Amino acid sequence: AQKVTQAQTEISVVEKEDVTLDCVYETRDTTYYLFWYKQPPSGELVFLIRRNSFDEQNEISGRYSWNFQKSTSSFNFTITASQVVDSAVYFCALSETRYNYGQNFVFGPGTRLSVLP
Amino acid sequence: NAGVTQTPKFRVLKTGQSMTLLCAQDMNHEYMYWYRQDPGMGLRLIHYSVGEGTTAKGEVPDGYNVSRLKKQNFLLGLESAAPSQTSVYFCASTSPGRADTQYFGPGTRLTVL
Fold first, then answer.
1. Which of B18, B19, B69, B6 is nearest to A43 (CA)?
2. In b/e form, how buried is each residue of B33-68, taking b as 16+ CB within 10 angstroms?
3. Total Cβ atoms within 10 A of residue B26
């Protein structure tokens, strides 16, 4: 069965520090998708990125970057020069394409990031 | 487009009471989902629907019922609420061919006393 592990339950950093959130996944499929979502204190889920299993290129979007390594089944998320507004719970998620209806969308337990001023 | 909306945003129930959560989407999506979010556990799938008039069980369906009478709406019912159902409930939707990416509503915080 698929599984997503986020070993860091909580992380605290001081503003402007870089921080990396770890995500390790398990799947038997060769084709799958990985996601990161942000949940700010207001509670909504904000989609950050979707990456398919065939695209191992790292991606950078502003202060955010993602490092996907199939060899270690990891999809880590780095925030550079963190800001207080980055404080949130971040979820990594996995979706396997062999499930036709999306009913297998599996979330990790989340990492709570606190950025202190 | 409002996207995915949920009603109500907050609710407090007493044990044994019933209620219905409403999810509505205006993106003409075929597939809709109900999740619950509990601390340290991420989101878990309760029920889902692949089209009007169809529903199926997810990972944690016990104690919940659902209905999809209209394509744009997906209702989650609690017939006899229990404290274990205290949670944040999220609805999501997507379309065939894009079932790998789900669009989430803002959530409903439910407390059962």
1. B6
2. bbbbbeeeebbbbbbbbbeeeebeebebbeebebeb
3. 12
Q: Chain B residues contacting A, CB < 8 Å?
A: 31, 33, 40-45, 48, 50, 56, 58, 88, 90, 92, 94, 99-104, 106-107, 109
3-state helix, strand, coil split of chain B in percent (to 5) is 5, 50, 45
| pLDDT tens, chain B, 113 aa long | 679 999 999 999 999 999 999 999 999 999 999 999 998 778 999 999 999 999 999 989 999 999 999 999 999 999 999 999 999 999 999 887 665 678 899 999 999 99
How many Cβ atoms from other residues are within 10 Å of residue A77's Cβ? Answer: 22
Q: Which residues of B touch A91 (CB under 8 A)?
A: 42-43
Tokens of B13: 């129930």
Q: Where are the beta strands (DSSP E) in chain A?
A: 3-5, 10-14, 19-21, 24-26, 32-39, 46-52, 59-61, 64-69, 74-79, 88-96, 106-107, 111-116
